[in-house]
UniProtKB/TrEMBL annotation:
Residues 322-438 form the Glycosyltransferase 61 catalytic domain. The keyword Phosphoprotein does not apply. Its EC number is 2.4.1.255. It comes from Crassostrea virginica (Eastern oyster). This is EGF domain-specific O-linked N-acetylglucosamine transferase. GO terms for cellular component: endoplasmic reticulum lumen. PANTHER family: EGF DOMAIN-SPECIFIC O-LINKED N-ACETYLGLUCOSAMINE TRANSFERASE, GLYCOSYLTRANSFERASE.
Length: 539
């Protein structure tokens, strides 16, 4: 297990060097968790009269993954009102499975797996520690030599450059001596973690030939570049698709918890062995994690790089990972982790919650304006919704013409969000806790957004009566032939309104919606708030 005292000492130094307590930059409801996990910072708050977090010093609640956390005090948003359909033997097992696969129990299991691969003998030595299958690793005083093109990783081919133009995740870039540190390498332990070797599932291809070096990289002056700030290495999924790119952001947030650090004074390095461009339509999101532009790995080409503190982040497509390939046990919904992710990003990106409104329910319809999965009678459905005076209707097209922050600000203020199957439904991650997501037609992909909505803890609905939807044609997949995702649809107006009214009933009756309305409009006066959806209402 990682030496958490070392981390806490570093955090205390960091706190003393920053401008003030506001540099924590965490949602108010997360402060007490941070203080409990960093006792030196907590003590500093106790000692300093100007610390604004005195009220949080004695709170007992914890995320749930900490060694000291009493299970009765762990954050818990989960409910399992329906059966597990054979996944588990009883309700307790059902709750436990959900917590371990979708909630902070996932972080706890990764923490318990952490073991040392390369051991330091002195404080100046290097360190490498990893969880099972090298899905997450942490290193100190590491050495990366990008000056060594040639024969790589046992392959019978010669490479003139370390960075291939068209191969993002080369698995033969790092031969012995290219990456390493001055430490005692447990080669057997490293070799045992290769089962998940794959580009977006583990770091094994990159660390397979990690070497025990005969020199101390920094002290013995073997570095062209010394990076003093912590670095987070990330292998990214598709930056043009919100569903896939948020696999990166969700796992980066999970990595923050594993690393017990939420500082944005860090570098993020996109681990990419190509020199190809990377289109990122959601780059605004990086501001929640770093103060600096994203660095491409090839920017270090032809240099010997030494890193004081390196984190190899959890990956976007791990087997039984967080978000993607995530086994969500039937019958449960409401992950505290995904709720915290929503709160963390809303806080860091400066989203403003204007609801609940006093006499309105805010409905957003996502209009695709693409070749496939359009709503053929969209105008008629919008007109029908507008006949209900309680509904505030907004039709949006989320594309490159609308800045991403404006998109998520809109979704953050959507009590009901409606859209066809597609990556745009990932906006459900930003909806308020009382919200409903309506996947108007799932195009025979039944579980994707249903499971994501259950993880986020909001109510999911989809089209229920197949006889009341008209498919334009059989669908035309480029290679697979007839396919439900490659055509357009027309929906029965009456059945559509039945679903919308049902969704509105859910919103109206949600405890947090009721609580938020009472708070905002008590004594007939509107209260301005940034966040009215949590247990703690912040002004």
């Amino acid at each position: 297990m990682r030496n958490w005292n070392r981390v806490c000492c570093w955090l205390l130094v960091w706190m003393r060097l920053t401008c003030g307590w506001e540099e924590l930059n965490l949602p108010e409801g997360h402060i007490s968790f941070y203080l409990r996990n960093n006792p030196e910072v907590k003590q500093k708050c106790q000692e300093e009269a100007d610390c604004p977090y005195k009220e949080q010093l004695n709170e007992d609640q914890c995320w749930g993954y900490e060694d000291f956390c009493d299970p009765q005090n762990r954050l818990n948003s989960t409910s399992c009102p329906r059966p597990s359909l054979g996944w588990t033997k009883d309700k307790a097992s059902q709750l436990d499975m959900f917590w371990k696969s979708v909630d902070f129990g996932y972080i706890q299991e990764r923490r318990q797996e952490l073991k040392t691969i390369c051991s330091p003998k002195t404080q100046e030595d290097s360190l490498l520690e990893c969880v099972r299958h090298t899905r997450f690793c942490h290193g100190k005083n590491l050495y990366l030599d990008f000056t060594k093109p040639g024969m790589f990783a046992g392959q019978e081919r010669f490479k003139e450059n370390m960075f291939d133009e068209n191969l993002r995740f080369s698995q033969d870039t790092f031969n012995k001596g290219v990456m390493g540190g001055h430490c005692d390498l447990d080669l057997g332990s490293l070799r045992a973690e290769g089962e998940h070797k794959s580009a977006l599932q583990s770091w094994y291809a990159e660390l397979e030939h990690f070497s025990s070096l005969p020199f101390r990289p920094i002290q013995d002056s073997h570095c062209d570049v010394i990076i003093e700030k912590p670095i987070y290495f990330m292998k990214l999924d598709a930056g043009v698709n919100m569903y896939h790119h948020f696999c990166d952001f969700v796992n980066l947030y999970a990595t923050n918890h594993l690393n017990n650090s939420f500082s944005t004074d860090v570098y993020i390095v996109m681990w990419d062995t190509s020199t190809m461009g990377y289109t990122d339509l959601f780059s605004e999101t990086w501001k929640a994690f770093t103060d600096y532009p994203i660095i491409r790995l090839h920017e270090y080409d032809k240099k010997r790089v030494c890193i004081r503190d390196a984190v190899f982040s959890l990956l976007p497509r791990m087997r039984f990972g967080m978000y993607y390939n995530q086994p969500v046990v039937p019958g449960c919904h409401g992950s505290s982790f995904f709720e915290a992710f929503n709160q963390h990003l809303a806080h860091r990106l400066g989203l403003i919650q204007h609801g609940p409104l006093e006499n309105k329910i805010r409905i957003t319809l996502l209009s695709r304006k693409t070749k496939y999965r359009n709503i053929l009678n969209e105008d008629e459905l919008v007109k029908a919704m507008k006949t209900v005076g309680e509904f505030e209707i907004k039709v949006v097209t989320y594309n490159r013409d609308m800045p991403f922050k404006e998109q998520i600000q809109s979704s953050y203020n959507s009590d009901i969000f409606i859209g066809m199957h597609g990556a745009g439904l990932t906006h459900l991650l930003f909806q308020p806790d009382w919200a409903v997501i309506i996947e108007l037609y799932n195009c025979e992909d039944h579980s994707c957004y249903y499971d994501l909505a259950r993880s986020r803890g909001i109510h999911y609905m989809t089209w229920e009566k197949q006889s009341k939807v008209i498919q334009e044609d059989e669908g035309h997949h480029p290679t697979l032939g007839a396919h439900a995702k490659f055509t357009n649809y027309e929906f029965d107006e009456g059945e559509f309104m039945r679903l919308i009214l049902k969704a509105a009933d859910h919103v109206r009756s949600h405890p947090k919606f009721i609580q938020g309305r009472k708070y905002r409009f008590r004594s007939g006066k509107t209260k301005q708030s940034e966040q009215t959806q949590g247990v703690r209402i912040e002004l």
